[in-house]
Each structure stands twice: as C-alpha cells, then as structure tokens.
User: Which sequence fits this backbone?
C-alpha cells in the first residue's frame, strides 16, 4: 500500500491505537508480568503474610507427580479430542458438500453444538451418561456389561470429557471446513476425474492440499480452545476427579488459585502454561504466518 | 448409474445417523426438560416426552432468575463484541492507512501478544487488579478487559490490505478526512467481517465460564453459565428436568445469533481465504 | 448505528450505577453470605425474614454465594478489597484460615454475656472454641451417621443393623446375594468420613493435639489406624460392598435409587432423604472398627464468622441476630427444616417434651451418637491450616485406592506426605 493519509494525521493513528494498547497493557501485559512476580512468593489466603520463596514454586511443580499427571492428562485429552473432532468434522463436511438432496438440512443439524458452551455441553453429556439417570449409560451397560460410571471411574470420566468436547468442537469445525470446501473449484476436480482419479485420490491429491491452510488454522484453534475451555465441563461435572483422572491443568490452576488459595503456586503454573502457549504460537507463526487467524 | 444411486442411499443413511448422533443430545436435553422428577429418575430411562414442560420452564425461570441472567449475558456479550469491533477497526485502520509512524511495529507486536496471553496465564493478578479497581462483581470486569483483540485487528488489517488503492486515491483527491473515509467507505465495505467477528465474539463471551465464575457473586451481574451451575445443587438430587429447561433457555440467544449470522460468518471468513 | 450505540452506552451506565441502591437512613443493613443451596436456602430466608419482622430497625440480607469453598473465596476477596459483609458462613475446614485471617472479630468479644453459650451443646461448642472461647457462632452443625433402606434389609432377610465394619461387609454381601441391592454401602464426603473414623476411635488426626495446642504440622493420616481404615474400605470396594459415591452428596442418589442399601452421610441430608425416599429409611450409629478406642463422632457443617471493618452499632445488630438464632423456637425450626442439630440444650429439651424425637426417631440417632461418645482432644475436631486443600488431598488418596490406581497403603502415604508439605508451608508463613 503506497497511498496513505498525510503526515499531519499521524496523531490520529496514535489516538486510534491508544485504546487497544492501553487495554492490552493494563489487562494483559501487566498482569502477566505480575504472574511472574507472584510465582516467587508464598502468600496466606487472606494475603496478610507473604514470604519470598525463590524458585521453590517451580521446583515443587516440576517435581510433583500431581502436576505431571495433570499436564499429561491435559495433553493426551487435547490431542485425542482435536484429532477426533477434526477427523469427524472433515469427513462430515466432505460428505455434505456432495451434490445431494437435503445437504443444507444436514449441514444445519451438524453445526449447532457450537452455540453450546463447554459447560452446557458437559451438563448434557453428563446427564446422558449419568450412572443413575442417563439413557446412554444405561444402554451401554445393557449391551456391553460395562457400567459407564463417571462418578467413580476415572477412565469413564476422562472419556466423558473427550466426548463432550469433541461434540462441541464438531459444530465449530464443520462450518469452517464446509466454507473451505466450497472454495475448491469444481473445474479442478472435474479435470482430475477425466484423468481417471477416484474419489479418494481426488480428495487426497487436490482437495486436501487446497484446504490445508484452514485445517492448520483449525488445528491451532482447536488445540487452544480444547486445552483452555474444557475447564467448564470439569468444573460442572467432575471437579478434577475421581482420583485426579480429569484434573486438567486449567482446573488444577483454578483449584490452587481460588480454592486452596495458593496464589504463588498457581502463578508458577500460569508461567508454565505461558511457555506452552508461546510454543504453540511460535509454531503457528512459523508455519502459517498470520495468514489465517481467528479466535 | 444404479451404482451411483446405491452409493447415495448409503450416504444418506450415514449422514442421517451422523446428524442423529450430533443432534440427539440436544433433543434429549429438551426431552428431559418436559418430564417430571419421577420420570427423570425412573429406571430404566426412557426416550419420551412428558407434559411438565411449562411447569419446568416456569420453575427454572423463577428459581434461577433467568430474566436477569439472560439480560446480563446478552448485555456483556453485545458490549464486548461491539467494543472489540470498534477497537479492532480503529487499530487496523491506523496500521494500514497512515504509512510508517514511530512505534508502529512495536504496537503491532503488542497487539499480537494478546494471542499468547489467554486468561489462565494471568488470572490471579488480573483478579487482584479487578479487586484493586473495585471492579469485582461489576459489568466492568466482565467487559472492558476483553476489548482488545489480536484476532479482530488482524482480520480487519488483512481486509484493508485487499481494498483497492484507487479507492483511497480517489477519496484523497476529494480531500476526505481519515475518519470520514473510515466511517463512510471502509466500515460499510467491512460489513461481512464485522458480522463475522460479532458472531464469533458474541458466542465466545456468552459461553465464557471461568472469568464470571471467579469475578461475580451477586445475582445482579450473574451470567447464564454460572446460573446453570447454581441450579445443580451438590446437596440434593439435582432436578435435571429444571436444569435442562434452564439450559435450553440459556442456549437460545447464541443459537439464534449463530444460525442467523452463520452465512456472514462464512463469508467474512471466506474472504480471507481468497487471496 | 450511532443512536443504537448511544442507547447501549446509556443502558450500561444505568445498570452499573443503578444497581447501587440507596438504603433507608435509620435501618441498619447487615449482609449475611451463606452457602445453603437447594431447600436450605428457603430455611435461611425464613429465619432472616422472621428476624427482620421482629426488628424493624435492622435489615439482614441473606445472599447465597455458592458452595462453601466459593463462599469462603468470595469472603476473602471482599475482605481484601475492603468491603466485607458482616457475617460469612464458613465451613468447619475453613476455621483455622479464619482464625489466622486477622480479618475477623471473635464472636465472644462482641457478644459478651448477652448470649449464654453455656447452653450450646458441648461437642458443638468445643469444636468452634479455641482456648475455651467461642470464635464463631455455631449455626449449622451436623455429624455423620449410617442410613439404611429398611425395605431392602427386609427383602434380604436381614434383621439387625450393622454396628461394625465387619457387619457392614456381612450385610452388604447378603444384600448383593439376595438381589436386594447391587451394592451394600456408599458414602459422601470421603475425607470427612475418614476424619470421623479417627475421632470416633479416639485417634488423633494431627499432632499438637489435633492442632489445638499449636499449629499442627504433621498429619497422622498414614498411621497404623489410617492404613487399617483405608485397607478395609478398599477391600470392601473390591468385594463390591462399597460403591464409591463421589465427594459430596451424589451418593445420596445411589441410596435413593436403591443402588445401595446403606449410606454414610451427613445428618444434614436427613430431611431431604426422608422426603424423597420411596422406601422406609432407618438410621443408626456409624460402624466401628473392632479393637480400637472409643471417642466421638466429630462435628461438621459450618459456623458464622463476624468480619472486621464495621461500626459498633452494626456489631450490636449482629448480636441481636445471633440472639434470635439461639432462640429455642428458631433453633427447633431450623432443625426440623434441615436435619442439622438443634444446637442448644433448651431446644433439645423442648423437642423431647414435644415428643418430636419419639415420633421421628431418625432425628435422634445422630444426637445419641454424639452424646454417647467421649470428649477428648481427638474427638473435638481437628484444626489444620489450609484444611481445604488437605481435604482434597485426602479425597484424592481415597479415590486412588478405590479405583485401584494405587495400593491403599501407597495412596495414603502419598496423601500424608502431600498434606504434610501443605501444613509445613502454612506454619512457615506464620513463623511458628
């Protein structure tokens, strides 16, 4: 872009930027630095006693089985959910994108879970799979003999989280996949058909590369959303249990910060999360630049 | 040809099953919201509708103070979405149309950084900040800290970069002021992006959970998400029929926003893909 | 567009500033934050309304602020921002935190001799007293007892109630064999039941006489007794006799649904269980482990703390409210509405005179249980710094043993180690 407003308007650029910069500075950057500061202290719940503990919060965290368990579970959970949800969504988007009757209806019935929060999604699935009243858990037990009891069984609770988040994310992913698929030009596909490519080859050789930017974008977005927002499900249903099976990092952070009220220990966890998120962001910029970006 | 039709039948069967699996939980939630307590707790559970719908919805409405919850959620969602849109447009405009000015790159990086600082990374100090500002349990805490958006700035910046230069050139010849240009030319052009961002942000804020959980406590500012949680008592049998009634009421606004604005969401986004 | 925006902004300012309502000049406003959800919210409202009617110059506003943990968190942040309510209901595990907060006014100081605390039944007053002085106002006190499904017992042909854990096993297996229930027993609040077992058998839970002679910095969770408890329980889980029922009250649902025929739960669930059960409910004392000492079941529930930063006039109003709470009729109503203990001897006497207990023997069980015990340091309840977190650690240890992800001994040892770190950290902060 070569044309621009004359220099005398530069002041206006600053004015226009000011609100964003102030908000980022005050509510994002300053508290983040504060997180780092707090992570070197130990405080009583009421804040009436404070002692400097150096790196103790970090060394404790990094040598704590509970924290590694929490981190491991979060990463496993996120990876499984993201892969499942992206895979299912892509399949559904490809199938609905075909020239078939009722495609529109199918599409609208697939995307509505996106309107549900993770907490709502969790509530619904929690009841569907509830050990006493749930219709799905009842039939699962009837058919397989396996009692799906997420109150007492850690694996069941973990699976419940995966199901509810996957369901919620399908609504989000399908809509973007469909948008991307509609941008794939039919002439390209026709040309490939003339060359004798079958459905799968066509998809793999032509469609998939064309939608890979969006796939990448969804991969990043799904990872961040699932990693951070599943908190809602955990807080409503399992509170990290049973036996820490659903103790994902965000819940542990919340518990240490707002229930046990160990602000220093919680802040140290924030810093570790920052390192993880920074990693993801750098990865994203390195491979996709700022081309596609969304919340 | 017959092969083609055969495939289609399978496709339909598959899609019907898929759609059913995706929609069933919502249908089930609605179903439970029409039952009475005995039906909820009957073993084995059955797929059926009861005739307690009105009673449950009234009960849920009154007990959770649903009117207020919906208002609060709608209010903070709209204000935050609009705040983000206004600030993002302003910032993007400053980045694209004013050439190089001192600090431009640093400002750009500062805004991008928001992407790396999701709430959990700064929750304790941000909470303490709200406390010091006396913002706990107010709308301020639920809206203002969320006005800045890397997503929004990038979205509009990308779009402005694709706006033909001739448009600005012609306007400059007419002696247009920057704000006039922004308001009468760029904003109308960005309609799709605005609606797309609005949709996504509205749903995002509506569905926020962690922040309202820690910063609000009175019914005056309580939002739908927390109101639902409070309907699930830890000390008694949850009345799932009432909970589900509240849930259905609480999801209708984002669902309406989403389904009506969905087309723009895709278009506002597809535009990005074109280049 | 501009117009709409203007309306939005106007609405915003109206709402934000409109919510700060003005209060009448001469009425003393008292804020009371509580954690009584469900049917108990109404019981609290009833008390508050009754008080407000009697005292036109005082207006108590009861506000439900979420779970116990959430209420405590909200209270702390209110104190930190300099705007605390007058009264906060804090659960028993928050007691040490409140004592150390430097943000409370001890109840005995403002009450003086205006309320006769001697009439508070002994186990309750000793739980909330430190050095013989009452720091908070007892409000909702409960303990744990055993509930059982009489119909299921009859169906299985069982004609006695279990008094020991051995009995629980026997009865449980009979229930399962006869098909009267899928499992024998479930319980809520696992860590609390663990604490109950310690107190009930006169075993200390932590050093320094359960933290009453000085801050505790060592927990006895992994003592021989602790290991015996968790191993016995885990063994029963493996035999299907115990079905794990979650951390708070979700086990009640298993009991009400007939999934289990015995339930160890807080007495505060009594009213709601009696109301919803479609079978005859019996109650009895907690089961014992043979060969251990005799103590007492410990008090749970919550008490009311008075916060600093208010005027003398307001504190006098708080005292008026507490006087109302300790009135015999109010105490009795609260007991009947919820199942919590009637906290004064006078109330108990009147309930007996009116044959309430003989007509409703289930309401008497817990009472007899705490009165039949022995008052010792071990049975007066433990005071621990950051008890909230230690509860969570203990719950986790029990869950790990029950789900088989660790052996019971290893799980309890790991829990004890974590809890000890928490206690040492806490003690370090206070420098003694």
Assistant:
């Amino acid at each position: 872009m070569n044309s621009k407003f004359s220099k005398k308007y530069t002041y206006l650029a600053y004015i226009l930027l000011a609100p964003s910069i102030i908000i980022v500075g005050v509510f994002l950057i300053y508290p983040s630095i504060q997180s780092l500061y707090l992570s070197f202290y130990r405080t009583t719940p009421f804040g009436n006693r404070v002692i400097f503990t150096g790196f103790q919060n970090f060394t404790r965290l990094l040598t704590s089985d509970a924290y590694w368990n929490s981190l491991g579970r979060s990463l496993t959970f996120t990876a499984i959910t993201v892969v499942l949800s992206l895979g299912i969504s892509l399949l559904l988007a490809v199938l609905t994108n075909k020239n078939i009757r009722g495609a529109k209806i199918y599409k609208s019935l697939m995307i509505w879970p996106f309107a549900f929060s993770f907490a709502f999604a969790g509530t619904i699935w929690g009841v569907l799979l509830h050990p006493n009243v749930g219709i799905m858990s009842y039939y699962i037990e009837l058919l397989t003999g396996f009692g799906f009891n997420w109150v007492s069984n850690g694996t069941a609770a973990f699976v419940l989280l995966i199901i509810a988040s996957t369901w919620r994310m399908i609504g989000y992913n399908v809509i973007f996949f469909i948008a991307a698929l509609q941008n794939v030009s039919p002439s390209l596909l026709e040309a490939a058909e003339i060359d004798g490519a079958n459905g799968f080859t066509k998809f793999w050789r032509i469609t998939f590369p064309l939608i890979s930017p969006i796939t990448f974008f969804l991969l990043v977005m799904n990872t961040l959303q699932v990693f951070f927002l599943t908190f809602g499900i955990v807080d409503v249903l399992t509170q990290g249990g049973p036996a820490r099976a659903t103790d994902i990092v965000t819940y542990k952070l919340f518990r240490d910060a707002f229930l046990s009220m160990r602000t220093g220990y919680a802040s140290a966890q924030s810093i570790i999360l920052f390192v993880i998120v920074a990693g993801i962001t750098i990865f994203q910029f390195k491979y996709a630049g700022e081309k596609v970006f969304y919340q | 040809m017959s092969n083609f039709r055969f495939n289609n039948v399978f496709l339909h069967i598959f899609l019907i099953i898929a759609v059913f699996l995706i929609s069933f939980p919502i249908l089930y939630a609605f179903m439970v919201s029409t039952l009475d307590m005995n039906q909820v707790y009957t073993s084995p559970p059955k797929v059926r509708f009861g005739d307690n719908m009105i009673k449950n919805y009234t009960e849920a409405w009154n007990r959770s103070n649903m009117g207020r919850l919906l208002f609060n959620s709608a209010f903070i969602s709209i204000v935050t979405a609009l705040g983000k849109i206004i600030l993002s447009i302003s910032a993007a405009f400053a980045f694209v149309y004013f050439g190089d000015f001192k600090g431009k790159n640093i400002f750009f990086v500062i805004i991008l950084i928001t992407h790396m600082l999701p709430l959990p990374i700064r929750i304790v100090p941000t909470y303490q900040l709200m406390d010091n500002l006396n913002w706990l349990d107010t709308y301020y805490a639920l809206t203002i800290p969320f006005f800045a958006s890397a997503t929004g700035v990038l979205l509009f910046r990308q779009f402005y970069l694709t706006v033909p230069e001739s448009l600005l050139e012609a306007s400059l010849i007419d002696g247009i002021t920057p704000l006039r240009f922004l308001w009468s030319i760029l904003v109308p052009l960005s309609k799709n992006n605005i609606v797309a961002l609005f949709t996504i942000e509205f749903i995002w804020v509506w569905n926020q959970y962690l922040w309202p959980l820690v910063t609000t406590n009175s019914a005056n500012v309580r939002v739908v998400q927390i109101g639902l949680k409070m309907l699930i008592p830890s000390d008694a049998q949850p009345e799932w029929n009432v909970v589900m009634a509240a849930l259905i009421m609480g999801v209708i606004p984002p669902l309406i926003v989403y389904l009506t604005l969905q087309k723009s969401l895709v278009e506002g986004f597809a535009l990005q893909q074109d280049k | 567009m501009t117009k709409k925006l203007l309306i939005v902004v106007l609405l915003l300012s109206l709402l934000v500033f409109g919510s700060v309502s003005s209060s009448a000049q001469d009425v003393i406003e008292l804020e009371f934050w509580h954690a009584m959800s469900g049917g108990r919210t109404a019981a609290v409202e009833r008390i508050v309304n009754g008080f407000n009617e009697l005292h036109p110059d005082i207006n108590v506003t009861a506000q439900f602020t979420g779970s116990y943990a959430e209420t405590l968190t909200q209270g702390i942040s209110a104190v930190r921002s300099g705007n605390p309510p007058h009264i906060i209901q804090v659960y028993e595990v928050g007691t040490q935190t409140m004592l150390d907060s430097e943000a409370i006014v001890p109840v005995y100081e403002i009450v003086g001799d205006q309320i006769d605390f001697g009439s508070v039944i002994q186990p309750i007053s000793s739980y909330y007293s430190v050095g013989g002085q009452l720091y908070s106002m007892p409000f909702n006190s409960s303990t744990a007892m055993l509930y059982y499904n009489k119909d299921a017992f009859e169906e299985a042909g069982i004609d006695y109630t279990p008094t020991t854990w051995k009995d629980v096993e026997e009865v449980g297996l009979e229930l399962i064999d006869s098909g009267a229930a899928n499992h024998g027993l479930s319980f809520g609040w696992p860590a609390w039941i663990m604490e109950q077992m310690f107190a009930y058998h006169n075993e200390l839970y932590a050093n320094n006489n359960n933290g009453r002679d000085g801050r505790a910095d060592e927990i006895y969770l992994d003592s021989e007794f602790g290991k015996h408890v968790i191993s016995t329980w885990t063994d029963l889980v493996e035999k299907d006799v115990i079905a794990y029922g979650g951390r708070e009250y979700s086990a009640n649902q298993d009991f009400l649904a007939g999934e289990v025929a015995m339930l160890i739960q807080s007495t505060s669930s009594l009213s709601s269980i009696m109301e919803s059960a479609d079978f005859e409910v019996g109650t009895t004392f907690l089961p014992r482990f043979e060969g251990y000492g005799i103590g007492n079941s410990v008090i749970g529930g919550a008490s009311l703390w008075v916060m600093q930063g208010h005027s003398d006039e307001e504190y006098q109003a708080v005292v008026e409210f507490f006087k109302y709470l300790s009135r015999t009729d109010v105490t009795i109503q609260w007991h009947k509405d919820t199942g919590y203990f009637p906290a004064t001897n006078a109330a108990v006497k009147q309930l007996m005179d009116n044959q309430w207990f003989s007509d409703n023997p289930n309401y008497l069980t817990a009472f007899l249980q705490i009165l039949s015990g022995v008052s010792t340091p071990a049975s007066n309840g433990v005071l621990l710094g950051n008890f909230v977190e230690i509860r969570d650690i203990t719950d986790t240890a029990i869950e790990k043993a029950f789900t088989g992800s660790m052996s019971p001994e290893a799980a309890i040892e790991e829990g004890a180690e974590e809890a000890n770190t928490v206690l040492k950290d806490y003690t370090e902060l206070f420098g003694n």
About this structure: Chain A touches chain B through 104 residues (CB under 8 Å).
